[in-house]
Amino acid sequence: MHSICSQATAVPRSNFAFDSHAPALPISKPINLRFCGLRKEAFGFSGLTHSCSSRVRFTSRGHSKRISASAENNGTPPKSFDYDLIIIGAGVGGHGAALHAVEKGLKTAIIEGDVVGGTCVNRGCVPSKALLAVSGKMRELQSEHHMKALGLQVSAAGYDRQGVADHANNLASKIRSNLTNSMKALGVDILTGFGTVVGPQKVKYGKVGFPDNIVTAKDIIIATGSVPFVPKGIEVDGKTVITSDHALKLESVPDWIAIVGSGYIGLEFSDVYTALGSEVTFIEALDQLMPGFDPEIGKLAQRVLINPRKIDYHTGVFATKITPAKDGKPVTIELIDAKTKEPKDTLEVDAALIATGRAPFTNGLGLENINVETQRGFVPVDERMQVIDANGNLVPHLYCIGDANGKMMLAHAASAQGISVVEQVTGRDHVLNHLSIPAACFTHPEISMVGLTEPQAREKAEKEGFEVSVAKTSFKANTKALAENEGEGLAKLIYRPDNGEILGVHIFGLHAADLIHEASNAIALGTRIQDIKFAVHAHPTLSEVLDELFKSAKVKATTSSHVPVSEPVAV
After folding, report:
1. CA distance 284 to 495
2. How far is CA 374 from CA 201, 216, 381, 404, in A?
3. Can you say whether residue 515 is alpha, beta or left, with left for phi > 0 and alpha for psi between -120 and 50 degrees?
4. Long-range contacts made by residues 475-478, C-beta under 8 angstroms, separation at least 24?
5. What is the CA radius of gyration of the chain?
6. What is the reported pTM?
7. Which are the contacts of 165, defined by CB distance < 8 A and separation ≥ 6?
8. Does the chain have fewer CB atoms within 10 Å around its N or its C terminus?
9. Could you tell me which residues come within 8 angstroms of residue 507 by beta carbon, excluding any fewer than 6 positions away?
10. Which of 39-43, 107-111, 125-129, 174-178 has the lowest mean pLDDT?
């Protein structure tokens, strides 16, 4: 799915909380999705007045996995606890878990070694959306044809680079502050330092050069997230060869930038850079651009997002060596054929952005103290996010959510996993259906998806013996899209015609990221197409794209009932 993917190497960590989609373990490639799932409290709308005075002890779940005895070799669990729940990492996943824990009456602490908000708020989905908001406005103002069609006349559009950078930084600061204040207001203890598991239900934390503190909890959640993955042979200097962490600071807008990887990160930055005047060259290891998308959506997106813009690309190649600009020389990129490994080309550009995915941030967690071995850096967990030790047994009272477990590297997936864990430790068994979790790419126009792609659905159908059908609708038939002069777009439904089960929905078009949730909620609730097509949508709205999509599906079954939710599959 990602360019220049190789085995993720160990990444030093200091408990920075990173939350950014990925297949179920084992995983051979880092994943480059990073999206946001902030709760409303992040925007200053707390409104919660839960009391933590009632502390309750809950019974364990009844599912049948052997419980690890390895903890016995690493000390005895404490008889009383400082907290009901300790969370290591205060990114979006940790934040979501902490707030839900307070709602459930748990005394909760969160350990953070960097800044509250993790990757999403500080180096990911929040500042990137600020930059993409600017690129969207610039595209509108620069499109003479678009403006003329609306009867508008606009003089030449320009921008102030530092002003754009400040917008992104200010947004991140505001959201970070709101996250911190929301946890403090609800009684969550924020413990500053680097957290390490030292034994059963026991964690130490502290700053470098200061004594460590030991705290205990009935349950512990690891939520340390991920960092940008940089393949071997690439020298990052933070100025001319950069990762997304550096790019979000927008310290420069190069005339020509190479983007290594054409996944979500690469696509979003190509949208920003081309809107601000840069020329972009994609370097993609696979034979086609945007390999992680549904193929039909990917082809349409390429026709709209890449072909008309100042973007060229090299596919089927690896960047084996990238050298930063120095002494007046440009950035040099050595390319080899991805299959034959023969030298292919050498590029000279002003800058290079490495967008080859993300690697789990799990070194230094002390997992060896509880006999847990990571798999390519990811912490192994079961379907309930409970950590699995080296012998295949569950580690009591220890969970891992978000990028660190690699199940689905999305910030809102991390938050959903954290909430699911809290449900479990408070006595309600809960298994999260990852196929119901949506994802989006915030280009102009946007791309969104939930569930299976068409090839994945047809592979599943062949194995399980059922038929697959596809329905499509165009934005060109939607009144609101035409009013906005934004008729370019497609919505695609993949479903079972025998029982109406929704297998996947993919949208490319105006506000696709907002439209996908009707489909994701339908999958989560097991709603059949024959039921949802009776839902009423306001007119004229973009939501009618989904209304027409569901109505166009041909389902043989007519009875109104829910279908069992499909078990998550490795995708």
Report:
1. 31
2. 19, 23, 10, 10
3. alpha
4. 475/509, 475/510, 475/542, 475/545, 477/548, 478/540, 478/542, 478/544, 478/545, 478/548
5. 24
6. 0.84
7. 249, 250, 251
8. C
9. 297, 446, 447, 448, 449, 489, 490, 491, 492, 515, 516, 545
10. 39-43
What amino acid occupies position 535? A
Spell out a b/e string for 425-461, using b for 16 or more CB atoms within 10 Å of the CB, else e: bbeeeebbbbbbbbbbbbbbbbbbbbbbbbebbbebb
Coil/strand/helix, residue 118: helix
Amino acid letter for position 449: M
Tell me the pLDDT tens digit for each residue of 231-246: 999 999 999 999 999 9
Residues 6 or more apart whose Cβ sits within 8 Å of residue 438: 448, 449, 450, 516, 517, 519, 520
| Contact partners, residue 450, CB within 8 Å, separation at least 6 | 435, 436, 437, 438, 439, 504, 505, 516, 519, 520, 523
Q: Which residues are catalytic?
A: 539
The single-letter DSSP state of residue 72 is G
Q: What is the mean pLDDT of residues 465-483?
A: 97
**Other C-beta atoms within 10 Å of 156: how many?**
6
Token pair 């300790």 is at which residue?
Answer: 86
Among all chains, which residue has been given the structure tokens 């292919």? Answer: 344
Residue 508, both tokens: 């490319």
91-112 pLDDT, tens digit per residue, is 999 999 999 999 999 999 999 9
Q: Which residues are within 8 A (CB) of 513 and not within 5 positions of it... i.e. 6 or more apart?
A: 440, 441, 442, 446, 448
Q: How many Cβ atoms are within 10 Å of 184's Cβ, its own excluded?
A: 12
Q: What single-letter amino acid sits at 310?
A: K
For residue 310, how far is the Cα from the chain centroid? 27
